[in-house]
Structure formats: structure tokens, C-alpha cells
Design brief:
120 residues, mainly beta, 7-stranded mixed β-sheet, 11 strands, 0% helix
Length: 120
């Protein structure tokens, strides 16, 4: 099995920063694209940012210039540095990864989510 474990969420004031981490573990042959999504109360889950194994990144317009996604392939970990946070960034943040497991099967794996709350 492959698991993703997120950390780094919490409560921050508007204008502040947080750094989320997501580590993959288990029977992993390779990890391809990794990403962060978020879901605010009573809203759908939306893309925040993705990053390929080669380091190419993609961002939602709402976070461009404020958030930075990065990854450490040696640690099977993806990060999300969030700066200039706004109350509308409040959501549960989920990481996901496209993984080839030890049986060479392709899986899309999701983490359990971490809550980010931005107070005004």
C-alpha cells in the first residue's frame, strides 16, 4: 500500500505564511505528478498546484505569486509554501500523487487532509 501523510496546517492571521508537507510511504516504485488541492466548506475540491517529477509546476490563478510548490524526490515529499495568506484560502488541503507501486500498478493516492484557517 502507498500512503500520503500531510502536516503543517494550522491557524494563521491574514498576511501570514504556512508551509505544508506531504510525505509518501509504502511500496513505491516511482512517483510522477504530485499536487495540492483544497476544499472549503460546502465547496468542491479545487486544484491549488501540481509539480511533475521533473520539477515543472502549475498553479491555480488564485494562488499564483503567493504559493510555491516544490518536492524532494529523494524523500518522496512535496511541499506547499503559502505566503500572503488570505481568509479565502481557508480550507482543508489535500495532497495527492500519481504513483507506480511495487507491483508496477498506477495509483492516484490522496492524503487525509490538513486544515488551514486564515483569520482576518
Amino acid at each position: 500500500q502507498v500512503q500520503l501523510v500531510e502536516s503543517g496546517g494550522g491557524l494563521v492571521q491574514a498576511g501570514g505564511s504556512l508551509r505544508l508537507s506531504c510525505a509518501a510511504s509504502g511500496s513505491i516504485f516511482s512517483i510522477h505528478t504530485m499536487g495540492w488541492y483544497r476544499q472549503a466548506p460546502e465547496k468542491q475540491r479545487d486544484l491549488v498546484a501540481t509539480i511533475t517529477s521533473g520539477g515543472s509546476s502549475n498553479y491555480a490563478d488564485s494562488v499564483k505569486g503567493r504559493f510555491t510548490i516544490s518536492r524532494d524526490n529523494a524523500k518522496n515529499t512535496v511541499y506547499l509554501q503559502m505566503n500572503s495568506l488570505k481568509p479565502e484560502d481557508t480550507a482543508v488541503y489535500y495532497c495527492n500523487a500519481d504513483v507506480r507501486n511495487g507491483n508496477l500498478q498506477f495509483l492516484r493516492v490522496w492524503g487525509q487532509g490538513t486544515l488551514v484557517t486564515v483569520s482576518s
